[in-house]
Specification:
Layout: E1 12-16, E2 24-28, H1 29-37, E3 46-48, E4 56-57, H2 58-69, H3 78-91, E5 98-103, E6 114-120, E7 123-129, E8 135-141, E9 145-151, E10 158-165, E11 170-177, H4 178-201, H5 208-216
Antiparallel strand pairs: 1-2, 1-3, 3-4, 5-6, 6-7, 7-8, 9-10, 10-11
Length: 217
């Protein structure tokens, strides 16, 4: 069996195999990959590690780790990042792909809720996640968002992510690290340009008269 990707060695996993009465472990990431390669455990089995709010399928956790590895270099809180992707994976549509995510910097008052925004091929997820793994929010479809903008009100290290909606409303996520802001907005513009180009190239529908003429020949 092929290794999917390299998981962090420091993480310890417990596995609940289908048909077993209790979980086994803990295993390091390398040990777990060896068990997978030897078919001792299955990607359909359940896995748990510190930072998850509940047991998940192994294939879901691997997918989460693969996505998280792409964002940790941008200064995201690893624990919140894991929780956010775990929750979004449960709520998202089948086949939905996530391209970027921003996480609000922790406030002075230590509020357990952190605002997040995730960019996917279907639209933008906006909401909040806490350290227990609960997510509150919903997805705005691509055609509901007119513009995503990075706003820097004064602090050199933090800014705001602003969404101007087609309906005339506006949503903001404050205290977002600048590096995350720049990447998110750049990715949003790229996806928007690709959607516009795709629509521009789409053939126009034939008028009703043309349909009648074609069907009558």
């Amino acid at each position: 069996m092929k290794t999917f990707f390299e998981l962090p060695e420091y993480q310890l996993f417990h596995v609940f195999r289908e048909g077993d009465s209790e979980p086994c472990g803990p295993f390091s990431s390398n040990q777990l990959l060896t068990l997978l390669n030897e078919n001792v455990v299955s990607r359909q089995d359940l896995v748990f590690y510190k930072g998850l709010a509940r047991w998940h399928r192994l294939h879901d956790v691997f997918d989460i780790h693969e996505r998280v590895a792409n964002f940790e270099s941008e200064g995201h809180d690893p624990e919140i990042l894991n929780l956010a992707f775990a929750e979004l994976s449960k709520l998202s549509s089948e086949g939905e792909e996530f391209y970027d995510l921003v996480i609000q910097e922790k406030g002075m008052l230590g509020n357990r809720w952190r605002d997040v925004a995730a960019l996917s091929d279907r639209g933008v997820w906006i909401g909040a996640v806490d350290r227990r793994g609960e997510f509150r929010g919903s997805r705005l479809e691509s055609d509901e968002v007119r513009q995503a903008t990075a706003v820097y009100p004064g602090r050199w290290d933090l800014g705001k992510l602003r969404f101007d909606l087609v309906c005339g409303g506006r949503l903001e996520i404050k205290r977002v690290p600048r590096r995350q802001l720049r990447r998110f907005v750049a990715m949003w513009r790229q996806l928007s340009a690709e959607r516009w180009e795709s629509r521009r190239r789409r053939p126009l529908p034939l008028p009703m008269a043309a349909h009648v003429a074609v069907s009558g020949t």
